[in-house]
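Researcher: Last one for today. Full complex below.
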Amino acid sequence: MAASGRRRGQAAPSREMPFLVRLYPRAWRIRYGDEFADLLAARPPMVRDQFDIVRAAIDARLHPQVIEAPARRVTTVGDRVLALAAVAVGALFSAWAGIIVSFSPRWGEGVTVGNDLLALSYGLGLLGAFVAIGVLLGLIYRHIEDLRSIGTLGALVAAAGFLAMTGDAGASALPLIVFGTVGMSPGLARAVGRPVTTFVLGSTLFLASAMLGFVGGGGQELLWLWMLAGYGPSWMLLGISLRRGPHVTITAPVGA
Amino acid sequence: MTEPLGELGRFAEPSLFILASLGEGPKHGYAIMTDVEAISGQRMGPGTLYAALARLERRGLIEALEPEDRRRPYRLTGLGATTLRAQLQSLSEFAKTGLRRLEGGR
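Model: Here's the assembly. Have a good evening.
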């Protein structure tokens, strides 16, 4: 199968490009940079090779053979599954909160839902947390070029937060989720755009504020209402945005 | 119909060597470079190699395959094979004519 595509971000490749490779134009580096750097690593250039490379780099600038096509998105079945899973996370969190909000008989005096419904709602929440871990790992797998190192670390921290939520370390879940979401925000903005990222980050911070009592007067009503109508929908919106897949930069022969 | 490699200027000869190297099957850049040195006795600089590869790929004479780690193999296209055959036949005719004249002139 012939191939000429390269993901965005690989113009700055996994390993540092030798200085000689950086003499070439960007489109050339995207297309040939990795393999050329590998060739130079396999056989370090002698002085006359270095002159040959400089001459060829000048030629590549004067007579370009490849051009950089506009970035586009490539969608796979995996992206659709990831999108669906993120929507499911939102639906599960909203359902969790929805049960508590709807069936609490003395709303205004805190959460007073019955034991069976409480167990059901927390079950949905736990399931949502497990799926959220999968979504965050899938996000890293499919969007690592956009997330970059800080965003990847942020996603891992957030995933650790959701893991803590399902176990005995519940107290550490909130800071991990908040710091993780903040950390992955710049990368998430590159992957799904600023408006969606702002909604996801804003809803997470607001949820944390409600949980800590900074808003809502320390009661749990605002927390659950926001989980239902803000935080859950933010995951759904994230899922809808993820269905388009990651950016891919394509290089093409000049004149093709 | 094949385009002559002569239009590639100073990259015409390296391009012919690359096509000849790929004649036996797909190879990545380093393998092409060492193979060309073996069959031609000439050292090909890495800059020249990739300048020629880019020109051959642009003209549809070779195509890139999926990368193996950071190494990307190339293979001849149908057009590349036809062009290589035409170039080699032309060179063969040229060599025969030269040798015949050399022997006739003795």
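The helical segments of chain B are 12-22, 29-40, 46-58, 78-104. Chain B has one domain: 5-104.
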